[in-house]
Design a protein that fits this description.
Layout lengths: L4 H19 L4 H18 L4 H16 L18
Helix pairs in contact: 1-2, 1-3, 2-3
Amino acid sequence: MLQDTATIRHYQKLTDSLVDMWNRGYRLDDLRLYLEGYIAAMRQTNTIEAFHIHRFEEEAIRFLHDPSNFELVPQPQPETGYY
């Protein structure tokens, strides 16, 4: 569980971006590359402490591999029988 406020903000931003990218047609390989780039940038800029980044990475990978986060929203079916 993430407890640092800066880490939580980054996690929320990342997961929102991943879901948005999924809805725009990107798939798991693309999302994984985005995640790896995001984490590499965090490490390079020293945005948060290294041990927080490690925990952040574990949580983000867990989010990425959970299929319930990327379910398609069912579209309403057109009603038939009405003229």
